[in-house]
């Protein structure tokens, strides 16, 4: 069977698709990944075959201002209660949907031309690559949407989330002979069920398999290697937690090595407590987040920085290879980071700038596996970055000190590990293509 994958961006958009693509290859199927030219190198690094379908203008890719930092109070479950949104909030969602339609318009000609030439029996596209559904509709083959780990199946291609297709999207579908009402036949969802919001969409849970664009035989990071000798209290060994002291208490966040026992009678782990800070935005974390990390370091916490949070320091390594040696993750709430921490059993502190980040943060907090703060809350306080960072540091210390967060994170890990793997998804998507395949 020939399977065409497509996405408009690398990073968090591409990574969730790689395990299924590799599983299809191992099962003897043919796979191509059609992407804008700027993503081709990232696809090639995964060992998959890229097909370049032109370049995306930056003006098309830029996210609407309202989506980058939404203002006002949004219902915590707004994707399933669109009637609760204000006209201004619907305007933000409409701007986001129109942006995705413009991206699809820029991709469609090259994608459909290649699809008509190569004749795939199935199209798999990331959740925001509407051109994939266009191509599947043009060829009359099944379409599979790949979610990134969001708490919701966001239908930004629909008016007010649950109405008819956006006018621009309907025109694009008709241009290529596709039915505007056409939707993906199946969504592959790596989000653990306890974090996911309900949806009428047909979803198949598929376990998250982290991938960083390098060989699966690569050497583990130093933080991952330490897991082999982890003591009770480590994310790999739930149920024991060393005492860290109260925020503001003199001393350092380092476990004693003098043979004393921790809470519950378990031995106390030697060495410093380690947390990870991961940030995706090119500009790095906000000043208040930087201040919180400095406050943690002043208390003896070892902070491992990933992404732009490293701020010029040597990279600590891929997030999923760093997390097994950490006791907490401070990040924005992106799907890939949420899932990596869930698989590692690590509590999370989310400082969320975007709507999807906020959804993930709220769901983590409700599951008890983390804490959540909208990025706007740091700005609204206006006491200065240092004071806001001190309060944020208290939240981080709470994650380290309260056993309930670690217990909930371990429960989330067990749930994530119990989800079906990519091999099960292979069988499901092959069935979509029909008995002749």
UniProtKB/TrEMBL annotation:
Residues 23-215 form the Erythromycin biosynthesis protein CIII-like N-terminal domain. Residues 207-271 are annotated as: Disordered. It comes from the Bacteria. Belongs to the glycosyltransferase 28 family. Pfam families: EryCIII-like_C (PF06722), EryCIII-like_N (PF21036). The keyword Isomerase does not apply. PANTHER family: STEROL 3-BETA-GLUCOSYLTRANSFERASE, STEROL 3-BETA-GLUCOSYLTRANSFERASE UGT80A2. InterPro entries: EryCIII-like_C, EryCIII-like_N, Glycosyltransferase_28. Keywords: Glycosyltransferase, Transferase. The keyword Transmembrane does not apply. This is Glycosyltransferase. Residues 318-431 form the Erythromycin biosynthesis protein CIII-like C-terminal domain.
């Amino acid at each position: 069977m020939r399977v065409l994958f497509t996405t408009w961006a690398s990073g968090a958009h591409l990574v969730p698709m790689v395990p299924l693509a590799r599983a299809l290859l191992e099962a003897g199927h043919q796979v191509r990944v059609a992407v804008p030219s700027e993503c081709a190198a990232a696809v090639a690094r995964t060992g998959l075959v890229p097909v370049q379908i032109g370049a995306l203008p930056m003006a098309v890719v830029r996210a609407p201002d309202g989506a980058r930092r939404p203002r006002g109070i949004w219902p915590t479950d707004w994707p399933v209660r669109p009637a609760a949104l204000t006209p201004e909030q619907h305007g933000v969602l409409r701007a986001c949907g129109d942006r995705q339609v413009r991206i699809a318009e820029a991709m469609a000609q090259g994608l459909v031309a290649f699809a008509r030439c190569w004749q795939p029996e199935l199209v798999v596209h990331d959740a925001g690559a509407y051109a994939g559904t266009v191509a599947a509709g043009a060829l009359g083959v099944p379409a599979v949407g790949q979610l990134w780990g969001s708490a919701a199946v966001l239908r930004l291609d629909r008016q007010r989330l649950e109405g008819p297709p956006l006018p621009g999207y309907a025109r694009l579908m008709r241009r290529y002979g596709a039915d505007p009402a056409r939707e993906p036949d199946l969504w592959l969802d790596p989000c653990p069920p306890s974090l996911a919001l309900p949806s009428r969409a047909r979803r198949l849970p598929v376990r998250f398999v982290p991938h960083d664009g390098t060989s699966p035989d690569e050497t583990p990071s130093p933080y991952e290697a330490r897991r082999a000798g982890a003591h009770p209290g480590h994310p790999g060994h739930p149920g024991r937690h060393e005492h860290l002291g109260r925020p503001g208490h003199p001393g350092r966040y380092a476990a004693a090595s003098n043979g004393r026992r921790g809470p519950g009678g378990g031995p106390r782990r030697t060495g410093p407590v380690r947390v990870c800070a991961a940030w995706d935005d090119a500009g790095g974390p906000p000043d208040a987040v930087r201040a919180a990390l400095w406050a943690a370091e002043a208390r003896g916490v070892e902070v491992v920085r990933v992404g732009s949070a490293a701020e010029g320091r040597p990279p600590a390594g891929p997030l999923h290879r760093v997390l097994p040696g950490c006791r907490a993750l401070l990040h924005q709430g992106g799907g890939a980071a949420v899932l990596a921490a869930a698989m590692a059993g690590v509590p999370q502190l989310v400082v969320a700038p975007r709507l999807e980040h906020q959804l993930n943060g709220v769901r983590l907090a409700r599951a008890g596996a983390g804490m959540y703060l909208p990025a706007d809350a740091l700005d609204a306080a206006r006491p200065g970055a240092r004071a806001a960072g001190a309060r944020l540091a208290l939240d981080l210390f709470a994650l380290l000190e309260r056993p309930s967060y670690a217990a909930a994170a371990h429960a989330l890990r067990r749930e994530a590990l119990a989800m079906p793997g990519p091999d099960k998804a292979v069988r499901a998507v092959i069935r979509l293509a029909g008995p002749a395949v």
